[in-house]
Structures are given as C-alpha cells and as structure tokens.
Amino acid sequence: MVTQKFKILMVLVALLALAIIVPNSGSFVVLLTTRALCFAILAMSLDILLGFTGLASLGQAAYFGVGAYLTAVLATKFGFGLGWDFWLVVLLGMLLGAALAAFFGLFAIRATGVYFLMITLALGQCVWGLAYRWNSVTGGDNGINMNGRPAFGLDLTNEITFFYLVFAFFVASMAIMYVLVRSPFGRSLEGIRERELRMQILGYNTWLHKYIAFIIAGAFGGLAGVLWAHTNGHVSPENVVLTTSVDALLMVVLGGAGTLVGAVIGSAIVFGLREYLSTLVPWWQYALGAVYVLTILYLPTGLMGIPARIRQWRGSGKSEDSTKLTAKALASKPS
Amino acid sequence: MNTQFWIVQAFNGVSYGALLFLVGAGLSLIFGVMRIVNLSHGAYFLWGGYIALSVIHATGSWALSLPLAALAVAAIGIAMERLFLRSAGLEYLRNGAIAAGVGVLINLAISARWPQLIGGGWIQFVIISVVAALAVYALLQRISVVPIDNDVLRQVLLTVGFAFLFQQAALDIWGGNNMDINPPSEFTQSIVVGGIYLPLYRVFMIGMAVAIGIVLWLAMEKTRMGAAVRATVDDAQMARGVGIDTNRISMFIFALGAFLAALGGVIGGAFLGIYPGLDFEMLPLAFAVVIIGGMGSLGGAAIGALAVGLADNFGKALFPEISYFTLYAPMVLILAIKPTGLFGRE
After folding, report:
1. ipTM of predicted assembly, 2 dp
2. Are residues B326 and B319 in contact, defined by beta-carbon separation less than 8 angstroms?
3. Is A279 within 8 Å of chain B by CB?
4. B176 near A CB under 8 A
5. Is A66 an 8 Å CB contact of chain B?
6. Apex B295 CA angle, B292 and B296, nearest 5
7. CB distance A56 to A334 below 8 Å
8. A205: CB partners within 8 A, 6+ apart
9. Inter-residue contact A150 to A156 (CB < 8 Å)
C-alpha cells in the first residue's frame, strides 16, 4: 500500500512539474491550463458535496456564475476590482457564493436522492434565468465583456504571470479543502455519506453538517467564478447553463468521487475535450459523449479507482466478486 | 393591458402548455415506472422534429411525418433503454455497440492526426475500425458492469452522455441551420372568436394534447395493460411477484415516452423552429412540468404543463427581465414544501 505521506509527495511533485512545465510551453497551453484550473477549483468544490458528503448537486454552476457575474458587473459598471481591490472582489465573490448557497441550502438540504438533484437543478435554472434575461444587469444573451485585468504591482496582462496567480489560488484551495476533508468535520461528512441514520443516532446534527458543506462548496464555486471572469475576459449565460453543472459532475465522477486529485484530473480531461479537441475536429462531442457513457458504465469509481479495481481483479480472479465489490464501493456513494 | 391582452396571453400559454404536456407526460411516465431520470428526453424532442423534416422533404406529407417521426424516435428509445439503461441479458450486444462506436472514434482520430495512414480509402477505414472495435470489445468484456438501477446520479450522467451524442449526430445529419416545419396551409389561418384572432395551429395543438391526454388516461385507467403499469409505478417488486412482466412494461413505457416527446417535436417545430440546442432548452422545462405535477402522474403532468405554459407566457409578457426566474422559483418552492409534486405519490 502507498502511504498517505507518499501520496502527498506525489501530488506536490506533480504540482511543481505543472508550475515549471506550463509557463515554458506555448502560449496556447498556458491559456488552456489557466482556464482548466478555474474549472478544477469548481470540480473540487463539487467533490466536497458529491464525494465526501454524498450530495449530488445539479446546480454547482450557479455559484460559479454569481462569482463570475459579480466580478464582471463590478469591473465594468463601477470600475471596482481593477487594482488592489481585486482581493476584495475575491473575498466578495466567495462571500456571495457562500451566501447564495446558504439561501439555497435552506430549500435543498432536506431533500434526498432524486429530489435533491431536481431541487438543485431548479435552483441552478433560477440563476441561469436571471443571467439570461436580466438584461440591464447581466447583458442578457450577449453576456458582459470585461476590458482589462486588474493591475496591482503584478503585470496580469502577461498570461504567464496570470497563470501563476490562478495557480496559486488553485493550490491554496486544494490545500484548504484537503485540510477540511481530513479534519474531524470532514470525517463526519464521510460518516454522513456512508450512513446518515447512524450519524444521527450518534448525536451528530447531520442537517447542519450538510448545510455547512453546501456553503463551503458554494464559496469555492464563487472563487472559481471570480477567477474565470478574469481568465476568460467574457461572462455569459453559457457559464451558468445546465450542461456546465453536468460537466462539473462528470469531472468529479470521471476522476473518482471522494478524491480531490481525481476531481482535478477529471476537469483536465473534460475541459480538454471541450476546449481543445473542439478546435481540432468537428466531431468532438462524440468523444465527450463517449467519455460520459464509458465512465458511467465501465468506470463508475473513476480513474482514481482503477488501481483498486485491478487489485481486486488480480486478487479474486472472478468477475462476479469484483462486481459485488464495485457495487459495494458505489453503494457508499450517493444515489 | 385590456381584457384582450389577457385572453390572448392565456390562450398562448395554454397552447404552449399543450406542447409541454406531450414532452412532460412521457418524462413523467418514464420516471414513474422505471425510476429513471432521463436527460435525453430533450434530444428525443429535437430528433422528432428533424426526422419529420426529412419525411416532409421526401414525401411532402406533413400528416405522414407525425406518426413516422414519433415511431422512429420510439424505436431509438427502445434500443437505448434495452441496451444501455437495463442491459441485463443483452450485455454482449451492449458491449458490441459501444466497441463499434469507440472503434469508429479511434478511426476518426487516426485519420485526423495521421491522414496519410488511411489515405481516404474506405477499405482501410473499415479494417482499422473493425480491428479497433474488436480490441475494445475484448477489453470491455473483461470489465464487469454494475447495473445503474437505483443510482440516480449515474442515470443522469449516462443519459446526458447520450444527449450529447444525439446532439452531435443531429448536427452531422441535418446541419446547424435553424429550420422550420411548415404545417399544411389550412392550419396557418386564424379563426375569429369574439373579435380576437386565434391561430388555428395553436387550436390544433390544444386539441391534439387533449385527445392524447384522454387516450392515455383511458389506457391507464380502463385497460388491463394500464392497470399493470399503475401496479408497476406503485410497487414494482410486488407487481413482479403477481406475475406482471415489468421488463416488458418498462420497455413499452420508455417507447411511449420517446414517442410523445418526438410528437411534441414535430408539433412544436412549427412555431419554435428546429435548431441545435433546442434539446437542452426543452429539457429543464419538461422537468419543471414533471416536478410541479409530481413524477409518475398523468393528471399531474397535465396540470404542471398548464402551469408552466401560463407562467412562461405571462412571465415573458409582464416581467420579461425575470421571466425564467418566475418559472423555476415555484418549482423550487414545490420541491421544498411537497417534494413529490402536487399529485405525486410516494
């Protein structure tokens, strides 16, 4: 078995490699990676809900959207957040994401299973509807074009400098979320995922735990949105649409729910398909659809689950047993 | 804002609700019987419209396009349900279909990256596809698949995957232009009732939805098959126990749902148009219908469709800036207060 320390070391080496290799590659790679990192933060925030708490949210794009729209509206309408006050916008974005999640959570947290999916879908659609129609604030279908990135000592118009900024946010988010899921609070979230009734009997206020996890996920979703607005330079209802939420879910499941690293790998693959493959070939959506179908049918525990499945397969040799084991592994995941 | 405005808007809302009923009723039945959240439902709607366009192009008959498109999409629905959503007993066929698809994708990738390797000849194309497909098939056969029953998240993601596949296929077959289905000229006139012009086509839509609703209701309440379906909705395990073939019923219901969605696509195509992206526009609306009415209830779908149709029309006319919000916010409230919807049963 690989020890936890070794795993952390591997992640650190991978991050270091990313920080060294990407800036020395072409400008397209830098641009693509910066954007993918924003989605990686979104995917990790969803993983807190899906992987660790067992709540499959179909509206995570809403928090991403409010973060992005907040940044764009403040920058274009009030000229706010283009200097040192950028850091204030980051804080505001996280607060707004958290506040929205706190409001939405009042409706959503009591629901379970398919009803939780449906209510988060409806909440996400509410935000999308406002983004799409509230022309005077959101610019409607056209969205908002941002002009220029914040300037505070650093030259953020330089794509490489900006990459390092987003990368720093990404690493910090990952570290905070890692500490969170390893904390006693994170452990009790996992307990709720496994067996909510038992946690209630043990005296945990499971509603409050889920509510707090929902708010934390919303805050990081907002952060991802703030970064995305400056990365992309354009915010539109496209960022809040249902398929963005579904994509975020696939990112988590493809990488392996319940592993933050998995969410990052998943977001790299899904984002790569959407943004990179689509520039190469016209049939890229077949590949995206195929990844969905193959992941769900053949790789339900995700890429991070492959070593465990190979071990099972070697150990038992019988496919029947491994079906049972996978079913068991899945049963602990949300339904 | 006189009475005429209210009457016209209400009429438009009701006729839009009639269209939504066709889409929502199918989705509701599929959920009620199979417990499957089907996110490909919007794609069925879109494909119904596109296939109808092809039928009209080939035969010139609009009346013929209605049943043909709906039946074709129902067949697609059956294939999808039997092969991918409930593949017990047909694992070989499922793996074969997926392997063939992946084989063609690998081939496409090779011809995009190294065109000289294939050289445009169809023989090379077939050989590479078959070899790749066989290799993928051998791999897939070794992987055991956990059934997706009772796992809502996996159902959602699987059916979304298919929705993307349908979307791209529609783009490749019919192109990306906005197209219109033109109904016969008799339908394009208006009738005048009390000084208000009512487009005949919208009257036809309402009539069609009412007729289908009555037929469905009679079939569900008065026939043996309907009784079996209701039994499956209430308790599938018990229904199996008393000898009802629930597998056949869920196949039938899935086909019926796809049939209704496609019918909606043909009928709705005349005033919404048919264009890429319509599938994911209709999907949340169909879910709103199902949620408000209650999943698995036909009467609920009718009420839900009427509510969504009216809310959409009046929302757009009265408060255009928050019109979608006024549509989805009630959905949230109903879910929060009575998760099973107005008419749903546990």
Report:
1. 0.88
2. yes
3. no
4. no
5. no
6. 135
7. yes
8. none
9. yes
Q: Which residue has the tokens 């190294």?
A: B114
CA distance A272 to A278: 9
Residue A119 backbone dihedrals phi, psi, to 5 degrees: -70, -35
Please choose, from the candidates A332, A335, A246, A245, the residue with its C-alpha nearest in 3D space to the C-alpha of residue A292. A246
Residues 6+ apart with CB under 8 A from A175: none
Q: Which residue of B has its CA nearest to A127?
A: B325
Answer positive or negative: Cα dihedral of A188, A190, A196, A197.
Answer: negative
Tokens of B65: 């396009």
At A103, list the tokens.
């409001």
Domain residue ranges in chain A: 28-241
What dotted CATH number matches B3-88+147-337? 1.10.3470
CA B11 to CA B8: how far, in whole Å? Answer: 5
Q: Which of B37, B142, B329 sits opposite A114 (nearest CB)?
A: B37
> What is the end-to-end Cα distance of chain B in Å, rounded?
43
A250 in contact with chain B, both atoms CB, cutoff 8 A: yes
Q: What is the pLDDT of residues A245-291, one digit of tens each?
A: 999 999 999 998 888 999 999 999 999 999 888 888 888 899 999 99
DSSP calls for A108-140 = HTT--HHHHHHHHHHHHHHHHHHHHH-HHHH-G
Q: Where are the domains of chain B?
A: 3-88+147-337, 89-146
- Tens-binned pLDDT, residue by residue, of chain B (346 aa): 678 888 888 888 899 999 999 999 989 888 887 788 899 999 999 999 999 999 988 888 888 888 999 999 999 999 998 888 887 778 888 888 888 888 888 888 887 777 776 666 777 778 888 888 898 888 888 887 888 877 888 899 999 999 999 999 999 999 888 888 888 777 777 777 777 777 888 888 899 999 999 999 998 889 998 888 888 888 888 888 988 888 888 889 999 999 999 999 999 888 888 998 888 989 999 999 988 888 778 888 899 999 999 988 888 888 888 888 888 888 888 888 887 777 766 5
d(CA B25, CA B48): 16
